[in-house]
Amino acid sequence: xxxxxxxxxxxxxxxxxxxxxxxxxxxxxxxxxxxxxxxxxxxxxxxxxxxxxxxxxxxxxxxxxxxxxxxxxxxxxxxxxxxxxxxxxxxxxxxxxxxxxxxxxxxxxxxxxxxxxxxxxxxxxxxxxxxxxxxxxxxxxxxxxxxxxxxxxxxxxxxxxxxxxxxxxxxxxxxxxxxxxxxxxxxxxxxxxxxxxxxxxxxxxxxxxxxxxxxxxxxxxxxxxxxxxxxxxxxxxxxxxxxxxxxxxxxxxxxxxxxxxxxxxxxxxxxxxxxxxxxxxxxxxxxxxxxxxxxxxxxxxxxxxxxxxxxxxxxxxxxxxxxxxxxxxxxxxxxxxxxxxxxxxxxxxxxxxxxxxxxxxxxxxxxxxxxxxxxxxxxxxxxxxxxxxxxxxxxxxxxxxxxxxxxxxxxxxxxxxxxxxxxxxxxxxxx
Amino acid sequence: xxxxxxxxxxxxxxxxxxxxxxxxxxxxxxxxxxxxxxxxxxxxxxxxxxxxxxxxxxxxxxxxxxxxxxxxxxxxxxxxxxxxxxxxxxxxxxxxxxxxxxxxxxxxxx
Lengths: 431, 110
Description:
- The complex is a heterodimer.
- By secondary structure, chain A is an alpha+beta fold.
- Chain A is 41% helix and 26% strand.
- Chain A has 2 domains: 3-183, GAF domain (Beta-Lactamase); 197-430, Phosphatase 2c, domain 1, CATH 3.60.40.10.
- Chain A contains 9 helices and 16 strands.
- In chain A, helix 1 packs antiparallel against helix 2 and helix 5 (255-275) packs antiparallel against helix 6 (279-297).
- The mean pLDDT of chain A is 87.
- In chain B, 40% of the residues lie in helices and 30% in strands.
- Chain B has one domain (2-108): Transcription Regulator spoIIAA, CATH 3.30.750.
């Protein structure tokens, strides 16, 4: 061979290598563009698969993405086969090339006739090159899926160069998958936050305006749920002949289930309160309405239902396990309306009632939940019932709204920046 | 805060250190359910080193007591400090539990 021939041959080889490198560089550039243009993983995966197959010369190819909830590798893009016929592959499937590559996190070139899984048959003809799709985080690499290529044109073999190229692209696909996961998680979180906000607004709307008992009584109330939806609530009823019904309740939990029990209690009480002026009978009827739900949810309900009859100078109440119910007199003494029974849902079928005198225009009814008196500061110290009552006593001659404002100023001052762990509810009424 | 579990005869004694609140109640529940799975039917919860129980802590004691009764067992309480004793009285939960002043007294007739 002459020197000229050698020179020509080398020049041709260099041109071929340059051409191949150009194709590879072009492929990486195109994929960068595809990923930059789209956040839709399925579309990006299909386009990328076409580009790789074209460059490597594979007639069949697939991209599988790992689904953490089911432990399956799901085909998101398929080339050379009907995508509908492809089934997901379990990551512990011993006969699958893709599953093995996912487990070992290493590329694998399997010759024809070896490791032939029926699940991969639609995307395999002869040898198969499979490369893991990795996401590299500061704590290490995490496998997200697998790319498989097969059916190389003209029976050429897959080379180490092909493997390197596919591995480089798989890294970019990994980034796309991770972005897709993050976008979906962000959308889901946003939707959940929106739904929780709606639930909060709905729950707050169920609580009546304190003005519903005017002019028979002057009332102020405030509820602060610890989560978006909570289990503390109050209700007010105008019972006729100057009488007023006041309910405070605390479901033994927070969140959706507690909110459901609260809503059921509110609607059942609206019916039962109008049927009797005896709080014990009203609460007995309420328990009959709620008992199935309380049993199913393993929850219980502490509540205090008070009926004030200023004409007769009488207060009657039924208290199922609610500790913080008081009448504060004009002289500043606070008398507790002690519980007559344990909380509803714990076996009592007929809650009892009690009664005491009521001084028209001067006695103050004060009902609050343990989220108020048990509020904690940044060192974990509990506010305490006594300090709450001190504020009430100091403002006992003022309008109920001033009493509520004073107590919440105390609670908020005590908690500082601490997030409350429990719902807080307070009702103050004069009649 | 933590829970320590010891056994005296056929009674499982669970000691609550610190507080029983919304943040650790499930841990107590699981510990006692694990004991039930092992066949234990008598559980004494000792509050000698407990300063505070919130409403969700009370809730878990009540649901455990109910579950144990359904399984033919019994859950009793001991060593409540004055504040906790008052809390049980104010909520009338003292009518649902057998509460003893000391661990020894609780074990006497268990």
